[in-house]
Design brief:
82% helix
Length: 126
């Protein structure tokens, strides 16, 4: 993932998080149970956090493109799709087996952060 694509994806992800959050708060407040509302809120929160992380990585990629930063960006994107996406689908559909995908997305988030750490640790060595 190059810097431009990373910044575009991060910006779109942030916009989508706002839309999903607003839709959930206004259109679904009387439809979803409080438990499913909490699931949606968790998805929106994590999407916001990792949209900002992806934005940071995109800005870093503009300065210096490294394999670790690219892997971090791809991991954050995968986490948004898998973690947040599975929570949204679970809340909208009520299909609880989708919850087995959520930890895979969480692992992708962790990998993204660790690749970012590793990038900073090895930065002076390059």
């Amino acid at each position: 993932m190059n810097a431009r694509l990373c910044l575009i994806v991060a910006s779109m992800s942030g916009a989508i998080a706002v839309m999903i959050g607003a839709f959930t708060a206004h259109a679904l407040k009387d439809i979803l149970t409080s438990k499913l509302m909490a699931v949606m809120q968790t998805g929106v929160q994590y999407q916001f956090y990792h949209s900002l992380a992806l934005l940071l990585v995109g800005l870093l990629l503009q300065q210096r493109s490294t394999a670790l930063l690219k892997l971090s960006a791809m991991s954050f994107f995968a986490g948004i799709v898998l973690f947040c996406g599975s929570l949204y689908l679970l809340a909208f559909s009520g299909v609880h087996w989708l919850g087995i995908v959520t930890p895979v997305g969480g692992l992708a988030f962790i990998v993204g952060w660790l690749m970012l750490v590793w990038n900073f640790i090895t930065m002076d060595k390059r």
